[in-house]
């Protein structure tokens, strides 16, 4: 997926299909899955093109469009195990006790930092940096047992 108008239109179509109860195709099903993880975005999808702009949601400024694209990219990396270190990181974080959605957000944050820095600098995405950053992610449940 790209951060382009075509993807924006696709995401808005999936949101509309979901609201109307229509079936969606495979990639659209994955977008729909990401939307299920973020019910706080539902109202924003009805805003059409305005959903691409950052919105205040639960006290944070978020672009539902960008967030959904990032989630879908990382979801694809995990499902295809390409690169394989992404699914290994997810499994490691889950094994340490982190909830799945929070683990996904940790991975997404690393991906997004590298993606947008690379884009601003006109450089290709740095897979080694991505692997290194994911290698440093960890979670230890601090609750006393």
Describe it.
This protein is mainly α and 145 residues long. The protein has two domains: 1-63, no CATH class; 81-140, no CATH class. Helix content is 64%, strand content 4%. The chain has seven helices and two strands. The chain has helices spanning 5-20, 26-37, 42-45, 64-80, 84-95, 100-121, 127-136; strands at 55-57, 60-62. Strands 1-2 form a two-stranded antiparallel sheet. β1 and β2 (60-62) form a beta hairpin. The chain is globular, with a radius of gyration of 16 Å. The N and C termini lie far apart (43 Å).
What's a quick, concise take on this entry?
The chain has 145 residues and is mainly alpha-helical.
Radius of gyration: 16 Å
Which geometry do the CA atoms define? globular
Low-confidence stretches: none
Name the structural class.
Answer: mainly alpha
Strand content: under 5%
Q: Helicity, in percent?
A: 55-70%
Count of helical regions = 7
Order of helices and strands: HHHEEHHHH
What does the average pLDDT come to?
92
The count of strands amounts to 2
Q: Strand arrangement, largest sheet? A: 1-2
User: Looking at the chains present, what oligomeric state does this protein adopt?
Assistant: single chain
Q: Strand count, sense and closure of the main sheet?
A: 2 strands, antiparallel
| Distance, first to last CA | 43 Å
Tally of discrete structural domains = 2
């Amino acid at each position: 997926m790209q951060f382009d108008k075509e993807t924006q239109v696709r995401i808005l179509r999936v949101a509309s299909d979901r609201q109307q109860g229509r079936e969606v195709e495979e990639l659209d099903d994955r977008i729909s899955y990401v939307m299920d993880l973020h019910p706080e975005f539902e109202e924003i999808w009805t805003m059409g093109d305005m959903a691409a702009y950052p919105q205040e949601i639960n006290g944070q400024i978020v672009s539902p469009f960008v967030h959904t694209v990032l989630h879908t990219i990382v979801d694809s990396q995990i499902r295809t195990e390409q690169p394989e270190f992404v699914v290994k990181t997810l499994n490691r974080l889950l094994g340490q006790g982190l909830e799945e959605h929070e683990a996904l957000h940790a991975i997404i944050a690393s991906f997004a930092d590298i993606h947008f820095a690379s884009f601003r600098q006109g450089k290709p995405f740095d897979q080694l940096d991505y692997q290194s950053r994911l290698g440093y992610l960890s979670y230890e449940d601090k609750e006393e047992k």
